[in-house]
# Entry
Amino acid sequence: MAGLRSAEALRKNGFDGELVVVGAEPHMPYNRPPLSKEVLASEVEHGRVAFPLRASMGEVDWRLGAPAVSLDLPGSQVGIADGSSVTYDGLVIATGLRPRRLSLPGPPPGAASGRHVLRTLEDAALLREDLWPGQRVVVLGAGFIGCEVAATARTLGCEVACVAIDAYPMVRPLGDALGAEMQRRHEEQGVTFHLGVGVEECTGDDRVTGVVLTDGQALAADVVVEAISSYCNTEWLESTDLDRTDGLLCDSVLRVTREDGQPVDGVHAVGDLARFPNPLFDDVPRRVEHWNIPTETGKRVGPALASYLRGDGYQPVLDTAWTPMPAFWSDQYDIRLQSYGMPGLADGDGIRVLEGELTGEVAVGYFRGDVLVGVVGLGMLPRINSYRALIGHPLPPDHVTGE
# Structure
C-alpha cells in the first residue's frame, strides 16, 4: 500500500519518467487490515482486497515475486533476489514488516504444523483452511491482530484461548480500563484469556497438539496463531550506513538518514518502516503502524521526491508543515473500535472517559498533561470523529464536544 501510494503521488506531482515497483509478493498491491477480519471470516482471495490502479499512474514496470536483497547507495542500485538489479535516480523504500516467530520446542513454525502467522494473503488463506467449528485455537498475543483473529475464529465456531504476557488485551494503546472492557466483551463471546504468562513450548510431533505456558498450564490446540509482534524488513540494507535503529530514521520529507544524522537525497522510506517526527505531538521520531500512515507518508514523499528529481530540491516541500493524524480501526464481533492520534503517548493517569459508558458505547480520551493526544471510541463513530480536530490541543477536564 505504501509503495502504491508513493507511486500515485509521484505521478500526481508531475513525475512522468520510468517508474519501477519491486515487490516480494506475487500479487499486485492489496489491503491488509481486512485479512484478520471479514476476509478471514469468509473467502480469502486477492480480488476482494486488491487496490484499484488509477489510470493517472500511466506506465509502471511491476517486478513482483522477488524481494529487494541489497542496496548500493554510492552506486544508486538495488539488487533483487532473481539476480537482476535496478539503477535509480530516486528510491522509495516500502519493505514493511514481517511477523515475529517464537523459537519454541515442538513442531516447527509453519502452516503445515498448525503454527500460523498472519501478514500476507497466503497467510490468511492457509489459516482459513484450519478454522472450522470445533477447532481448538490458541492465539499467542493479545494485540489488535491477535484479538481480531480470536474474534473471527470464535465467530467461525472455534474454541479460542488467547495468551499474552500483558495484564489486559490491547493494553498498550488502550490502557487498563478499556483493555479490561474489551476482555470482558471477548469473554462474553466465549474466548478464554491467559494473561501475564508466556509460552514455554508447543507439544506434538509433526503437528501441534497444544502449548505449555510458563506457569505450567497446558492448553490443548489444533491451531496456534503467533501474533506477538513484528520485525522491520531492513536486513537487506545492512551493508549501508543508514540508521536502522528502529525501522529507518527519516526527516520531515521522509529522506532516510545516515548513522551520522545526515539525510540521503533521493532516498525515502514510507509506511511501517519510516521513523519520523510529527510536530502534532513533539519532535521525537517514531514509527507508526496505523492503517493510514502508508497513505500519508506516500503523499508526503510524492511531491518531495518529484521536486528533487526535477531539480528544484527539497526546500519547497520542507517549508510546508506535515502533521499526519494517525488513525486505525478494529472490528471485533459487532464492535467497531475507532482511534485517532497516539493514545500510547498518554500519561499513566491521563486516560479518562469523555462520553458514554465503558460497558456500552464510549469515547475515551488520552492526555499528556492537559493536551489530548488520542481518542478511542467503541461505537459512537460521529462523536469520535468530532474529537479528531482537538488532538494536539489542551482540553479542560470536563470537556465534551459540542458543549
User: Anything to note?
Assistant: The first helix runs from residue 2 to 12. The mean pLDDT is 94.
